[in-house]
Amino acid sequence: MLKQIWILIILLGTTFAAVTGQLSSSDQELGYFDQIEFFSHEEELSLAEARDLQSSDWKSAPADNLSLGFDKDHYWFRLPLKNLHASDTQWLFRSKYPLLDTFDLYLFADSILIEEFHTGDTLPFEQRPLNQPSFVFPLTIATDAEYVIYMHVHTTSSLQLSLSLQSESSFWQTMATENATSAAFYAILISMIF
């Protein structure tokens, strides 16, 4: 038993060494949670109605992990974005909480709709933009435009949003680390059984 645990520890050490590394400035995860705003309503609003809301109708969201509890209201979120890099870049926008019935994302550049995604746990898995258990949306952000992301979220379960915006390479490194951590957890559980 002790031998199996030592082998597991050695394998885990090499796994974590393989998936961690320094990220360049173009590979970092962007923090923006102080700028996100939300609006809730009992009835579902259209995208046009959400965009026409007054600034006073929007509320500032909590700092990092947004948890609104069990609420059957329809929520709209908006988030301004700006690319600070010298070139157009591909980003992956992720909501880590997968138990959302409806998750619609709209990306506007200078008030023009350029990307639109409709997903949620009530829709077929194949409809997701990326084959991931969480909701991941590929976004191309140019350097010369002002962007706003609008999100419509509705669920009958707990409403939580844990959002991130990462470059592709940073996203896949994060996925590798999360998968290695999950594998380590299950390996330890299995080793305790035998």
TrEMBL record:
Segments forming domain 7TM-DISM receptor extracellular: 41-166
Superkingdom to which the source organism belongs: Bacteria
InterPro entries: 7TMR_DISM_rcpt_extracell_dom2 (IPR011622)
One Pfam family of this chain: 7TMR-DISMED2
Name of the protein: 7TM-DISM receptor extracellular domain-containing protein
Organism: Oleispira antarctica
